[in-house]
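Worked example 4.2. Below are the chains of a multi-component assembly; read each line carefully before continuing.
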Amino acid sequence: MAGAGLEKRRMDKIECIRCGPLEEPDPSSPFCTACGEPRVAVPLVRPGARSIREDRPLALEKFVDFLPLEAVDPELSLGEGMTPLVSLRRVGAALGLPAVRAKNEAQNPTASFKDRGTVVAVQKTAARGIRRIGTVSTGNMAASTAAYGARAGLETFVLLKEGTTPLSLRVAGIHRPHLIAVDGDYGELFRASLEVGKKLGIVFMNSVDPHRLAGYKLTAFEIFLQLGRRPPGMVVAPVSSGGHLIGLMLGFQDLEREGMIRAFPRFVGVQASGCAPLAEAFRAGSQRYERPMVVRTIAHAIANPAPPAGNAVLRLIREREGLLLAVSDGEMLEAQRELAEAEGVFCQPESATTLAALKILAASGQIEDGNGEIVLVLTGSGLKTPGLLEAAPLELHNVSLEGLEEGLARLL
Amino acid sequence: MAGAGLEKRRMDKIECIRCGPLEEPDPSSPFCTACGEPRVAVPLVRPGARSIREDRPLALEKFVDFLPLEAVDPELSLGEGMTPLVSLRRVGAALGLPAVRAKNEAQNPTASFKDRGTVVAVQKTAARGIRRIGTVSTGNMAASTAAYGARAGLETFVLLKEGTTPLSLRVAGIHRPHLIAVDGDYGELFRASLEVGKKLGIVFMNSVDPHRLAGYKLTAFEIFLQLGRRPPGMVVAPVSSGGHLIGLMLGFQDLEREGMIRAFPRFVGVQASGCAPLAEAFRAGSQRYERPMVVRTIAHAIANPAPPAGNAVLRLIREREGLLLAVSDGEMLEAQRELAEAEGVFCQPESATTLAALKILAASGQIEDGNGEIVLVLTGSGLKTPGLLEAAPLELHNVSLEGLEEGLARLL
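Applying the procedure described above to all two chains together yields the following structure tokens:
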């Protein structure tokens, strides 16, 4: 198994999302030495020869032609992907938009989109015979990497930055990774982990990782299938490191290259206004973002003051005529409640930034008619952040068993 | 829509799971007036003419021939069902069992199996033009009914018994149902809700409900498909009210009637030893269970001292040569950690009772070779009960950014 992995490794190509293939890439860095943009692991099947295998059970198998995998080991899967694309009729109607849908990533094995990237990175790592993986995280990434590491029988190192909640710690901890709280800047920790990992033989699969990015493409392919082999008109997704949004865009780019779609969706990336370096750079027309002095938001999962793929996001969004904007904590909490009340969907506030952004765009007339389907990517479950529910209104009535009829009748 | 519903209602048949069709059933009671066992809503397509539509996207649509639905309204779905059936290789190997799998119900929209029953009951209610639903719950049922009620635009009444955690309250509350804390016995509340509901026009879809039971059959159909159109040798599931286990058994019974399976799986129902009326009656050889005087377990989701379908479970398990047993809180917590550590699956302790029971059966030589696949039904996500994680061991290392390499090297 390890031998076969070593032999096939030579076929593994990692290229810059901007510059394309390079002669001598540094395999331990996720960034291009020429331009600094992220690298992505490219599929082994050449463009033009890729097809979707709808009859296969796992998402990894359906879209394997578009992934950097020689083969899929189903034993390393936890049943990630193929999450529902549910219509948001009431939410859409309230905005005068006929076709709004949610891609509910909370229905992944560890209740967030991270599993798509983790499973591809772990498949690759295990095939190479590497037994140690790691990640840098405050929450969803920690749980996902710890779960898939446990699944594959790997030794897993989770580096936690300050501010990780006790719940996040325990949810990752149940899989028994090494949990290491690191005192220091998150951006520096991201880079240091890769350097140290290279020395110690630990593959760090952080938010921007060539195989992780490839995994995030799956969401694009699934949306395409779920819409009856058509692209949506618009995709709205939260942006933190930038890796997820880039993965989504690369997925639609793959479909474009295969001639499966002609129109490219309009991408809207959303940040929290308390930490919005990309939205601010976009508004200012800058090519590079500036790190905010202060970070103040409840949206910890997307509060990244120095997104590693931030400048790449700025470039891609501009080239594809997309948008980047920010929403307030109040707006995202209101949108979270609206999705739960009107549609029965309970997501993280970070995921609800997508609806908050859509409301802003609709109110300011920035959505034209006939734009096609609008897909909000809801990145994680509301169960991940129970503490934030305490801000939601809650009315509890008390009745005795004898007073049940009267009590209920009063509410009618 | 409502008119069509009224016309079609006449076709809706509800029959006792033991006595079969009755001439004049009381439509407001989920129990047979003759024998007291639960009623189930029967499919509209007659036996022998039912087929599985594998090409349809929703679980409800794939198995509609086996459901009491004239049609499926996809708008009322949240994408429930088709949860992964993941292999548990390490867990199986440790027990000397080659083929153990988990049906991971945590990947349903509200992170538990309840959604399967709720969606069928809500489809039916909405088609009839009824606008008010309710349930009696301490946790998973409340969240599920509140979510689907919100989805369908129904007014939803959630009756909560004492001991509901603040988290459960808020997770259901985010969908804005009427939350009513009722002071009084849970068993009496179950019955009172149905009576009061009938008077006030509120359809209470409690744990034992004819349409809910029909929805739970879906899990059996999916397992059958996921095993390549074969039945498992054994199905292990937690037992609380008894509705879920009966639904699972009815599903395999449907497949048997269609000639799709010949061998019927051996069913193992598991309770918490701190509240195990059915396991105790089974061991004592009694036909009827006795209510325990004291309930003491961390497993709130299955701590039901007076399970409404309990005697039916006892009968069915005996007839089908199954088993009922109880496991301790310590055993279920250990099994929860084992699933997380060895397999990457994070479930509720109540769900982990299934592995705890399997370990007992394997240790006492009660599992014969060649029994076929063993399926553990993991009913809900570990994220539902974060408080219980505090008992799990957790080791956190602290390092500075400069000390990262040294800190990691020490752990290797």
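Take a moment to check your reading of the output against the notes. Chain A is about 40% helix and 15% strand. Confidence is low (pLDDT under 50) at residues 1-10 of chain A.
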